Amino acid sequence: MGKQIFNNYEKVTYGRLQEVCSNDNVSVFPKVRLADIFPINNSGISNEEYTFSLKSHFDFTIIDNASSLPIFAIEFDGDLHETPGQKHLDNIKDTLAKKFDLPLLRINARYLEKKYRDLDLLSWCVEVWFSAEAFYKAQENGTVPYDELFDPELIYYISGKDKKFPIFLSYDIRKEIRNLYEQGKIKNSSPNIWIGKNKKGNYYGISWIYLDNRRGVYSVSGMKGKSFPISEIDLLQEIMIFDLYEQLQEVFANKKESNSNQKISQIIDGFEKKYRLVMAAAGG
Question: Where is the DUF2726 domain (predicted)?
């Protein structure tokens, strides 16, 4: 009897990738060796990197069907990736991907288990990648002005998706928050956002809403910097707004207590002292 090709999470990852890539003329290949992707001979990489490329693989590599070239890779990082030895190997893989200009998205169980609207985070990242590619090609063709910036929240429709603004994850929740404000149940018409960055390039943020002059709810989260062309800031704020809305619902259902605005201010102060500000938005 042979060995299993996938563990459970890798199996789910493969299925999600097959689904989200189905309309983009690409193929998803599991367990492709780095030496079969990168032109490592006479490339100037170190002996360690060369040997590593011969032995190691990407969990999943997405190949353009027209050119047969790799366009990006996906790595699923389980608990073992937190050990010092595995971190060193991951760093080598990251270095090689960067050297050979291959976008590499590292994910964990969080990217698969929870749905935001009708997307998990892995699907969101891949949809944004393909949407951005289509956007930039449209700019090259003159369909879209060169001075227009790509914003995933402004994508109105994607083939095969039922909803308007399909990759604007908090689209529905923002409308619900606005309704609560108009009903006089909260003080802010939209979430407050503060996101900072540490010296290692990782992102940390807080989102909050004031219920009145004394009480509020908040959500905090973090995200590692990506070697993948998506905005960590956009994704992190969307995740926090989902978490914030869940906190808000629990408070209104009397399942948990709200927080004092003083406590929220203390947490914000802590973030401001610890991280460098990269994005802030005040709720209306």
Answer: 3-111
Q: What is the pTM (predicted TM-score) of this model?
A: 0.91
pLDDT in tens, 42-60: 999 999 999 999 999 999 9
E strand map for 65-103: 70-76
Question: Which of 168, 283, 165 shows the shortest CA–CA distance to 234?
Answer: 168
Other beta carbons within 10 angstroms of residue 125's beta carbon come to 22
Residues 6+ apart with CB under 8 A from 227: 94, 97, 98, 103, 104, 105, 106
Instruction: Measure the CA angle with vertex 76, ends 237 and 102; round to 5°.
Output: 80
Neighbour-count burial for 53-76, b at 16+ CB within 10 Å, e otherwise: beeebbbbbbbeeeeeebbbbbbb
Please tell me the distance from the alpha carbon of residue 184 to that of residue 236, in angstroms, as a whole number: 28
Residue 190's domain comprises: 170-281
**∠ at Cα 47 (105, 40), nearest 5°?**
55
The domain tally of the chain equals 2
pLDDT tens, residue by residue, 115-142: 998 899 999 999 999 999 999 999 999 9
In a domain, 125, yes or no: no
Identify the band that residue 83 occupies on the pLDDT scale cut at 50, 70 and 90: confident
Q: What is the CATH number of the domain that holds 227?
A: 3.30.160
